[in-house]
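Following up on my earlier thread - several people asked me to post the actual chain instead of describing it. Fair enough. Here it is, all 75 residues.
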Amino acid sequence: MVVDDVPEEYAFVRAQSCEACGCTGSYDVKLQSLVRIDGAPHDVLDCKCKECGAEKSFTFDVTRIFARYDEIFKQ
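Reply from S.P.:
Thanks for posting it. Predicted structure:
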């Protein structure tokens, strides 16, 4: 999923239902990391369900965020 800012990532995670127990809005972000996938920057949010403890990772393409910062620093 391509995002324009980090709060969009967290809003997406909050809106997800747990695949294990079905509850909504119960993921806690345990770790946020930056990785490169096919050369493009991506945020990975490792999450855990507050209700059942199931773990899930969400991956976001942050290329637009990095492009915006590149433009700022070029000025």
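The chain has one domain: 6-74. That should answer part of your original question.
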